[in-house]
Amino acid sequence: MTIHHTSNGLDLVRRHDLLWPALEQAIHAAVLIDSRNTVIFFNAAAERLWGYDRQEVLGRSVDVLVPAPLRQAHRQSIEDNRRTGQNKIVGTSRELEVERKDGSRIWVSFSLSKVATDDGIYYLGFLRDITREVLLREERRLLSLAVDETGKAVLILDHNRDIVYVNQAFTDLFGYTATEVMGRRPSSFLASPATDPADLQRLQQGAWGNTGFQEEILAAAKDGRELWVSASINPIAGPEGEMRNVVAVLSDITESRQLRSLQQEMLAALTSDLSLDGLLDFLCRRIEVIAPGLVAAVFLRDAEESLALAAGPSLPEDYRAAIRRVPIGPEATTSGLAAFLGRPLLSEDVPSDPRWQKLGESLRHFGIQACWASPIKRADGRVMGSLTFYFPACRPSCRWHEEIALVSRHLCLLAIERHESRERLMALARFDSLTGLPNRAALLEKARALTTRPEGAGDIAFLSIGVDNLQDINETLGHAAGDTLLIAVSNLMHARLEPKNYLGRFGGDAFLMILNNTSLARTSSLAERILAELAAPLDIGGQPVTCSASIGIAFSPANGGNGEDLLCHANVAMQRARTEGRGRPCFYSPAMARFAQDRMRLSAALREAIRQEQLRFEYHPLVRPLTGEIHGVEALARWTHPELGIIPPDRFIPLAEETGQIEALGNWALREVCRQMAEWRARGIDLPTVAVNLSPLHFRNKQLPLFLTELLCEYRLPGHCLKVEITENAMMDGEAETLETLHRIRALGVGLSMDDFGTGFSSLSRLAKLPVTELKIDRSFMRDIDRNPNARAIAMAVIRIGQSLDMTVIAEGVETEDQRQFLIDLGCQVAQGYLYTKPLPPAELELWLRRHRPFSEG
Ligand code: C2E
Ligand code: CA
Ligand code: CA
What we know:
- By secondary structure, this protein is an alpha+beta fold.
- 43% of the residues lie in helices and 24% in strands.
- The strands form 6 sheets. Strands 24, 25, 26, 27, 28, 29, 30, 31 and 32 form a 9-stranded mixed sheet that branches. Strands 13-12-11-16-15-14 form a 6-stranded antiparallel sheet. The chain has a 5-stranded antiparallel sheet with strand order 2-1-5-4-3.
- It binds ligand C2E and calcium ion (2 copies).
- Residues 634, 693, 725, 755 line the site of one calcium ion.
């Protein structure tokens, strides 16, 4: 390695041949300057330290290497040394911050020594980069500052979980000095006898784990005082993953925990049924538990100028009596004055306060020293009351009490607001918002009060009044019109109401009138008058609308003893009025109730029967009257209930329609009939078609054609094997969707029969456009034709209409040979009736078919 040096240092180099290579290779930076401050040697480590190439500094002033703030002083001392021969800066060893060529700063430890030679004086500087050490040291200093200054107790445990460090806050909190606890297990002295062993176990186990966690636990201080601490436990692992230390940070949460549980308990109480006073009482007791030595009370504003004592469970009885109501104002005692001023107020010396003297003996008896009142304020600033703390002894530290008061005032407000909203709801819950009439709940209460009166107080009538066409009006004119109608109806009835009677609304279209001390005649004439008045057109938004109503009436005591029963009975009667006696009130009878009850029971039984497939089919043949050939069969549903016996379809089919079961029944019917037909065909029993009756309601289901397609496919039946019978009105309902469904069914090849033809209101031109293949003349037309020429003429006309539409005409209800002859004479192609047979179960039908065959051949 070549050593570069300046001419000044030439002699030196020559004389110290051995020294230079050593200096050059030193790991510390070495710089040699002469007494003129010129750099004459700069080793490789120095180049690295400063970032200068030695060519850039050799032969130049050392100033560039000296930290700027020291430059002046450095130059001065070199100069002084030269003049005086002293060596003031020599031997110095210190830490400096130097600036490198690229402007960055590093910390170095620096030492300078004087080298005196024959040529003169030289200075040799050694420097070492100590930046990392300085930073680490600073970090450690700041850390220990933080640990010692923090209010939280810090413990550091070693790998055995024994204490190796505690900070000052630990000593402050628990009373143990660092020396007392060194080397001990925290659990051996910090746990209180009352500490939950499960909590302790969790904490200890966690400290051996490898993730940090937080736990709240009851601990004990050196003096035995219990305190709740929140412990944050942080295990620290070494580089190999081995657990080295645990750092635990503990903070005292005794008070915040107490406040939290105060809040929680009070919130739980708020969801209970406790009254406002009960809640406030509860709050006062809880406050007294967490702040021993004080007596709490809550006053609520009951008028503009006064407060009423709402709670103060620990106040002596005579004192409570004395402060039951306290005025709000400038002359008032602490609570009243605080409410007046709208800010917390302290009376430190109650016994000598002249305002308090009016409380007299009770105050002396209570023996309080201080009183602190803080107003309970709503968000808008309105004072709702006062939370007052009495201190029998001298008033102790107040920060804790202020915190309790702050939380408690919020809780009081919550309780007050809950109370107010309950009251509001109670009021709302009693009236119908549309008509302003009492609602169901309010009416039932009234009814209960009336019906529990002593005997002989006179008859009470319950009138259930239903607006029948509300739904129609809602749908055609809109809900606003419906509302207007209800208000008009309500006004009209209200005008008829005498003072001792009641009117209310208890549902969408239902009103209830209760007539007190009335008679049958008077009730009936009032009901009829109401119906007559409602029948006149009402003006709804400028349009005349006719309201149709039904009234059902039940009497007390004849029809029931209590309000609920009477209401229910009046309703049953109203339903009855709706179905039969339009325009006339209907009086409740026990038979009606039985009917309604039976219906409910039957409906449940039917649901069960459909589910369990208890329904069966009988098949009724359709025969060509002239030849006796079989045209097909009609499937008719039969239900034999295990207890109720045979229930005719005229009863259960309408029931299924009214109780929403008709679709389930229809789907089952279609499947069963297809199954039966497939079975017959498989066994070679030749039946052209089987007809199934479907309810018009079923027809509204758009999935019906799809369902039929799937069934035909499943049972491998051609479409023409199946026929669907629907009543005239269903086919003519004019809905585009119904028509579409009819076409889609017809497109499957399935026949469409119009049942009970002649009983509906068909328009012949529309009838001609329907995809119907058959008309079944209703069996009422067959009645009397043997005897009554008029009946004959009508039957003839109906059959002719069918024929003129080019459809197969089927006459139902053919019972006699005469009727058959009549049909043959008219050219009616198909007849169905008891003349041939009653509807038969499948097996019997097979027998009948076999027996029938010869007749058809003949
Ligand atoms: P419908 O469709 O008009 O059925 C014909 C009814 O007339 C049957 O009464 C049948 O027994 C009766 N009938 C047939 N020939 C004569 C006769 O010569 N004289 C007399 N007096 N009656 C005769 P059923 O079985 O009691 O059915 C009554 C109604 O119940 C049926 O009238 C039909 O509307 C309905 N129904 C029956 N089964 C079903 C079904 O599975 N689904 C639906 N939706 N309705 C059904
Ligand atoms: Ca039928
Ligand atoms: Ca029929």
